[in-house]
Amino acid sequence: MKRIWQIYVALMVLLVATVGVAYVHLGPLNVPIALAIAFTKAILVILFFMHVKASSKLIWIFAAIGFLFFGYMVGGTLMDYHTRGQPYRLPR
Amino acid sequence: MSDRDLSHQFEDLQQQSESADMGMWVFLVTEVLFFGGLFLAYAVYRTLYPGAFEAGSRLMDIPLGALNTAVLLTSSLTMVLAVHAAEEGHKKPLVRYLILTMILGVVFLGIKGFEYHHKFVEHLIPGPGFEMDSVHRQHAQIFFSLYFTMTGLHALHMIIGLGVMTVIAILAARGRFSRTYSNPVRIAGLYWHFVDVVWIFLFPLLYLVGTR
């Protein structure tokens, strides 16, 4: 139970960090950092609040598969867009 | 009590619990892909029009968004406490935490509604009435379309979640749950946490794009 409160505090700290970093100019690093913090928060909620860490491997597999296929979808699609040639590049 | 709570197709309570969890996770996987499609659309259009996304995101209210994130994270906490109470067989704390979770959910929706109203007043709803003082005016509508679609779908999930919680809370108040039977509370919690996780990603992607 104490662990749950610790996780909650960690989530709040990460929330403050997310907002704080948004006000600091880090150029191209801003996006990966914001996503990294979001991922960390999500992992904490999934592992501890959703009790996946304490669950059987079967549950682990189902949880992981969801995000794995989401990764395929985004990865494959962006791979296409990022390798398109001149006609598809639009003026910024 | 034990025997009544065990459905005949399961060997024991542990298998029954795990089946319930697995069933909800299978559903949540479909939800990941459901929201995932919108996140993918976001990724593609942000890649194509980064300036428009920054311009649009700068018009978002960060304090309100951050407050809403805190509200949802807290509601996940109260949900965990509710599940814990259910598994211990403590009825009063269970009902109390369920109601707290629901109140926080309503607060979230209230703040969201206020934000939507503000967008309407500021002419930021995509369509003929859209007005924005920026060189990115045209493509910013894509950002706002995604904003309304993604947060709208999320809000719909919140409303459904509140409906589910209402049923669970009523059942809990009637003493339906015990140490041996708390599956519905736990898997309702899984759904609630999932909706929270979706928002955890929505917040930085929609509110924190253009650095101030």
Task: Summarize this structure briefly.
The complex is a heterodimer of chains A (92) and B (212). Chain A is an all-alpha fold and 92 residues long.
What does this structure look like?
The complex is a heterodimer of chains A (92) and B (212). With 92 residues, chain A is mainly α. Helix content of chain A is 73%, strand content 0%. Chain A is built from three helices and no strands. In chain A, helix 1 (2-22) packs antiparallel against helix 2. The N and C termini of chain A lie far apart (51 Å). In chain A, 23% of the residues are buried. By secondary structure, chain B is mostly helical. Helices cover 79% and strands 0% of the residues of chain B. Chain B has seven helices and no strands. Chain B has helices spanning 2-5, 13-48, 50-57, 62-88, 91-121, 137-173, 183-207. In chain B, helix 3 packs across helix 6 (137-173). Chain B is elongated and about 70 Å long. Chain B starts with a helix and ends in a 5-residue tail after the last helix.
Low-confidence stretches of chain B: none
Quaternary organisation of the protein chains: heterodimer
Outline the biggest β-sheet of chain B: none
First-residue to last-residue Cα separation of chain B? 59 Å
What is the rounded distance between the termini of chain A?
A: 51 Å
Number of contiguous helices of chain A: 3
Work out the strand percent of chain B. Answer: under 5%
Instruction: Bin the helical content of chain A.
Output: over 70%
- Quantity of strands of chain B, as a count: 0
Largest sheet of chain A: none
Category by helix and strand content of chain B: mainly alpha
Write the layout of secondary structure elements.
The complex is a heterodimer of chains A (92) and B (212).
Chain A: H1 2-22, H2 30-49, H3 57-82
Helix pairs in contact in A: 1-2
Chain B: H1 2-5, H2 13-48, H3 50-57, H4 62-88, H5 91-121, H6 137-173, H7 183-207
Helix pairs in contact in B: 2-3, 2-6, 2-7, 3-6, 4-5, 4-7, 5-6, 6-7
